[in-house]
Amino acid sequence: xxxxxxxxxxxxxxxxxxxxxxxxxxxxxxxxxSAILLALGALAVLVLTIGSQALSxxxxxxxxxxxxxxxxxxxxxxxxxxxxxxxxxxxxxxLVRDNLLATFPEADADRxxxxxxxxxxxxxxxxxxxxxxxRSPELVGGQITLTAPLNDDLDLYLKGQxxxxxxxxxxEITAVVPEADAGYRISGAGAFDGLMAxxxxxDADRxxxxxxxxxxxxxxxxxGRLTNIEAGAAQLELLTxxxxxxxxxxxxxxxxxxxxxxxxxxxxxxxxxxxxKEMGRVDRVPRWTLLTNSDSTYPELAGGLAAIVxxxxxxxxxxxxxxxxxxxxxxxxxxxAPRNRVTEFIEVNINNLAAVPSIVFGLLGAALxxxxxxxxxxxxxxxxxxxxxxxxxxxxxxxRAALKAVPPSVRSGALAVGASQMQTVFHxxxxxxxxxxxxxxxxxxxxALGETAPLLLIGMVxxxxxxxxxxxxxxxxxxxxxxxxxxxxxxxxxxxxSAMIVILLAFLLLMNGLVVFLRRKYERRW
Length: 526
Hints:
Layout: H1 2-8, H2 12-57, E1 59-68, H3 71-74, H4 82-87, H5 89-103, H6 111-118, H7 127-135, E2 143-149, H8 152-158, E3 165-169, E4 175-178, E5 184-187, H9 193-205, E6 214-219, E7 222-227, E8 233-240, E9 252-256, H10 267-278, E10 282-286, H11 289-292, H12 305-336, H13 341-353, H14 358-372, H15 380-404, H16 408-416, H17 421-449, H18 453-457, H19 478-486, H20 493-522
Antiparallel strand pairs: 1-2, 1-10, 3-9, 4-5, 5-8, 6-7, 6-9, 7-8
Helix pairs in contact: 2-20, 12-15, 12-17, 14-15, 15-17, 16-17, 17-20, 19-20
């Protein structure tokens, strides 16, 4: 009895070893949990970063212009056909510009001011209205409301981006006195105490040699620039509106930290866009044009429709080539091919091809399809064939794994009742392996959808303004469009790039969701 008790009691060395092993198990679980949390944290940062910028691009500001379609401008004599009206972009743009000059008469004082007010809308922004009038010529001579996107820099300003500013509420202005230099002296007991405190904070945060900040004062639709600011008085240079609007009012002051020379928009443009907003002519609406417009050199007009259609056409070509050939190759290698050195050599190279960088397939496609066969550059047909080359190994490997998962008893049973090998494979084995085969094929397609490098080498980086009608038309794809937009200098392209990334991720999630659905619906457990 004593010997048994002594044997069942662990020695000190064994207990110490057991303690170390349990501690190692605990540390391993901790490391695994830490890795998962780190991955989730990185994913959360990525989603929040892209999502916050994409949210900004989901809406944009549009301006309404009430214009009269003067026949002498819209449909002059000899140019009144629908096709000529739709091409008369300059005429419609001139009417919009005239409307802005009538709204802000001070903008007609010199060429620089006229150019600044003309920048509110791009010429191509009036093209949809020109086409609408061309479809309904009876509108010529009447009055319509033309809605056009606001300039991208002003759109960012209204969203609180692009221009650093600080808003401060002032006290009541009791007196507005004209001065000899066409400015105004405005005053009020302690009206600018808060403004001066805000300027002191801003100056403390800025470098000592920084340029002077600009201070704009807004009352209703009127805006002026303040100088010589004291606790109870300041000089006002009226930018737009009426000086009387500031009397007996508590206007809002804007301390604009960036000097006017370092900004893409001027003080007068800020004053004018604030006035339009006060008039109720500026609305923030969903940016459906991101899905309905093609690419453009202007961020406010750019969309991804051509790239989306190009991606779908490219994926169609890839699927029609890679899936049948890859699946049939897997069936042959797994079910019919003899086991010898040739098939072993083929299998090794298929596994090696799955690890080849995608840019190598782009070089191969450019040399084979474009230089040797003379196929068109920047076409979904060539892009789909290149991506099919890259997808073949993935489809073959996944399909062979699915075929191996079918129990040998299925083959034995079919052969036992008199089925041929061909009937056994295609009537029994392949249908049972179909969920795994489709899963691998769709995952390979999803990988191909996000590829950029091979498509750059076959010219699909070209600017495409029209939606492709077929696989041989010039086109681009979503990853390449994202690459192109990310290289543009204007800040407005950043949120558009993020929005396009979200659209691409939505397509990838849809394809992965289809994989999960097929697996759960048709998978059989043995």
